[in-house]
């Protein structure tokens, strides 16, 4: 009885929260900016390093002996020389460290971290040539602003301002388009200056200057996972600043598989948010317009705004309670409400920087492509924060982000629909995090870039604070992950995902050997390599961590019941649509066998 009361109370509360609080309680002038991911016990030595979520996939904490904050290329050169001389393992860390996998960890405990925090200047904007040269630690926000000041624009970028140019290139980050050169920022790189180890007679470190004729080096350096050296500067090819006009259109998802390629060809900045349990897909109809079309629209995406910590905690508590009581209906009600509220309030877009009146939103590229107002703000002692800030009780999630070649996208979508039809409520949890974001990506000449044109599926879902606690509909999302990776050979985003997404990943890259040749030339002592990069690059070992409960966190694919949570009724079984999948399923609950 008490439980029941509690559940309906939280349900009611959550209803209110999702509907109103997120929108009303968002504080636009105050917040706590994210903290430095590096913490040292004495000055700049004896340090720990984590990511912006405060948790790697395996939940370990990484250590390093020292962190250095170079402010010039010269200081950067000295830092790499010192590491080379001393044969110290090195990793580059950025201002916020947004990647989920353990890319930032040097091996052992006596490695060196080189931070790009103070390498954030704009070196040159060449308006006639339409290029910009920046230091690698500049944030996407600042880069977009600097380009716009000169009347120029990057046509496609990730949607979140907080990434650095060095980090987003390192992991192949992208926006969404099927047009022209495609949506990956690395395909607009025309110059790179990279500091690598060197021979003693060269001073132990040197700057290599690459342009678009420097092959094969450039195709390796454009997406490098940080293993080639430290990128000091980057030159990007830009376009004249332009305006866009966008609107969202919600449709039934029954023909999504058939529509997806056509839609990508029709609209330059197309993307799709898919809500499988609601049988709904929201299409972003978004194209360039002449600059005399009036409009001064601004994107301030609600999910990237400073949010009151109290609201974040309540939302999280309510999701935790729905998980612990297996309250799928509660999740579905909230998911519907979240989606319709976001849709009717324009997701945080405004027509003029102040209010959302309605679609279309017309505005300049630099105001529409990306956002992240929770980044810049005063310190307020965590009264507000970015929703995933680990210092407050808030969002904590897994992210499965995999791109599927265009020729397979239709079949993948149909498989997801089959899973949905077997378990109609299974995707409500994903819909609480804005559904499955589908974005277009194109084949790249970068060795570790996309191998073919495709669609990137970005799936965010609940992660328990306790690694041994299974999730509601655990099995369905695990099956989807394995369908994407193994049935359709999907490529995981290098900066997101759980370990199993990288199981055998390097075999999917035709020119991986060419990448490793450049690696050998730039860093023969393998100072920039780590256990993680050796595993994903197929040099040594494998990303799976087999232990009790490992499948719950995506550290392994289950092969025994103990990899799931048999004491909680979750056992290892084949998939329902994809029989080769092995997933943790709760027999009594989901499958009435
Ligand atoms: C809220 C949010 C939204 C996101 N949105 C998108 C999106 O829309 N599209 C998308 O594709 N991705 C997106 N991502 C993922 C993001 O692109 C990647 O996680 C990205 O790599 C993070 O960039 P970062 O600057 O934080 O780099 P980090 O995570 O700190 O670094 C990534 C890698 O690059 C290396 N590196 C960094 N700088 C250098 C350098 N100067 N020289 C050599 N190596 C370097 C690091 O060592 C590391 O190996 C998002 C992430 C978050 C948290
Ligand atoms: C390093 O820091 C840890 C705590 O983070 C501390 O326990 C340890 O004593 C420190 N070691 C040195 C050498 O300072
Ligand atoms: C080289 O490494 C040793 C041992 O790890 C350390 O004591 C020393 O300070 C390092 N020297 C430099 C120049 O970093
Ligand atoms: C560069 O970073 C420093 C330190 O974080 C900051 O104070 C400064 O405003 C930044 N400069 C630019 C141009 O972003
Ligand atoms: C290299 O970039 C320059 C400047 O953008 C461009 O003019 C040239 O055609 C490019 N060359 C190649 C080989 O892509
Ligand atoms: C914009 O300019 C073009 C010519 O440059 C003109 O044909 C068109 O009518 C103008 N549109 C608006 C909305 O003013």
How would you describe this structure to a colleague?
Helix 1 runs parallel beside helix 8 (328-344) and helix 6 packs antiparallel against helix 10 (406-422). Helix content is 26%, strand content 23%. The model is unreliable at 1-30 (pLDDT under 50). It contains 14 helices and 26 strands. Among the domains are: 38-115, Uridine Diphospho-n-acetylenolpyruvylglucosamine Reductase, domain 2, CATH 3.30.43.10; 243-364 and 381-502, Alpha-Beta Plaits (2-Layer Sandwich). The protein has 593 residues and is an alpha+beta fold. Strand 14 and strand 15 form a beta hairpin. Bound molecules: flavin-adenine dinucleotide and 2-acetamido-2-deoxy-beta-D-glucopyranose (NAG) (5 copies). The site of one 2-acetamido-2-deoxy-beta-D-glucopyranose has 3 residues, from loops. Belongs to the oxygen-dependent FAD-linked oxidoreductase family. Pathway: Cofactor biosynthesis; L-ascorbate biosynthesis. Residues 60-241 form the FAD-binding PCMH-type domain. It is an enzyme of class 1 (oxidoreductase).
Which characteristics define this entry?
about 600 residues; alpha+beta; Uridine Diphospho-n-acetylenolpyruvylglucosamine Reductase, domain 2; binds flavin-adenine dinucleotide; binds 2-acetamido-2-deoxy-beta-D-glucopyranose; L-gulonolactone oxidase; D-arabinono-1,4-lactone oxidase activity
């Amino acid at each position: 009885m008490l439980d029941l009361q509690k559940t309906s109370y939280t349900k009611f509360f959550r209803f209110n929260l999702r509907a109103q609080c997120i929108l009303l309680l968002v504080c636009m002038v105050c917040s706590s900016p994210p903290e430095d991911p590096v913490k040292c016990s004495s000055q700049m030595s004896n340090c720990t390093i984590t990511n912006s979520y405060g948790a790697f996939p395996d939940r370990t904490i990484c250590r390093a002996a020292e962190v250095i904050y170079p402010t010039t290329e010269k200081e950067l050169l000295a830092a790499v020389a010192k590491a080379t001389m001393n044969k110290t393992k090195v990793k580059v860390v950025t201002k916020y460290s947004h990647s989920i996998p353990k890319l930032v960890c040097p091996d052992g405990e006596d490695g060196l971290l080189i931070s790009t925090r103070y390498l954030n200047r704009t070196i040159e904007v060449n308006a006639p040539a339409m290029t910009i040269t920046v230091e690698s630690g500049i944030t996407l926000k600042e880069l977009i602003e600097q380009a716009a000041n000169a009347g120029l624009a990057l046509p496609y970028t990730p949607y979140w301002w907080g990434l650095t140019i060095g980090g987003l290139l390192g992991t192949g980050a992208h926006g969404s388009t099927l047009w022209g050169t495609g949506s990956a920022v690395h395909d607009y790189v025309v110059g790179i200056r990279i500091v690598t180890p060197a021979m003693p007679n060269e001073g132990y470190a040197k700057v290599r200057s690459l342009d678009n004729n420097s092959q094969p080096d450039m195709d390796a350096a454009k997406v490098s996972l940080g293993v080639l050296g430290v990128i000091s500067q980057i030159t990007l090819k830009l376009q004249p600043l332009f305006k866009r006009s966008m609107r969202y259109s919600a449709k039934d998802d029954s023909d999504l598989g058939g529509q997806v390629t056509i839609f990508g060809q029709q609209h330059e900045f197309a993307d799709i948010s898919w809500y499988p349990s609601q049988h709904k897909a929201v299409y972003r109809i978004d194209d360039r317009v002449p600059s005399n079309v009036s409009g001064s629209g601004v994107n301030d995406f609600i999910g990237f705004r400073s949010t009151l910590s109290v609201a974040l905690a309540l939302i999280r508590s309510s999701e935790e309670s729905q998980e612990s009581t297996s309250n799928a209906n509660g999740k579905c009600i909230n998911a519907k409400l979240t989606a319709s509220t976001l849709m009717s309030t324009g997701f945080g877009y405004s027509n003029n920087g102040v209010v959302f009146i309605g679609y279309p939103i017309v505005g300049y590229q630099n105001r529409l492509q990306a956002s992240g107002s929770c980044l810049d703000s005063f310190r307020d002692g965590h009264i507000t924060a970015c929703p995933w800030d680990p210092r407050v009780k808030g969002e904590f999630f897994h992210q499965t982000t995999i791109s599927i070649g265009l020729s397979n996208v239709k079949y993948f979508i149909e498989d997801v629909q089959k899973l949905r039809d077997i378990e109609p409520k299974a995707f409500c949890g994903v819909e609480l995090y804005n559904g499955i974001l589908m974005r277009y990506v194109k084949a790249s000449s970068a060795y570790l870039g996309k191998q073919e044109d495709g669609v990137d599926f970005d799936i965010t879902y609940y992660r328990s604070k306790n690694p041994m606690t299974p999730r509601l509909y655990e099995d369905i999302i695990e099956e989807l992950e394995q369908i994407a990776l193994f049935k359709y050979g999907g490529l995981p985003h290098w900066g997101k995902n759980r370990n199993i997404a990288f199981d055998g990943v390097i075999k999917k890259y035709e020119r991986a050997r060419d990448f490793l040749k450049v690696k050998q030339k730039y860093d023969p002592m393998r100072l920039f390599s780590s256990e993680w990069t050796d595993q994903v690059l197929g040099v040594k070992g494998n990303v799976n961590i087999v232990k009790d409960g490992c499948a719950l966190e995506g550290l392994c694919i289950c092969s025994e019941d103990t990899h799931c949570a048999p004491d909680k009724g979750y056992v290892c079984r084949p998939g329902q649509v994809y029989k080769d999948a092995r997933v943790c399923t709760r027999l009594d609950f989901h499958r009435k066998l």
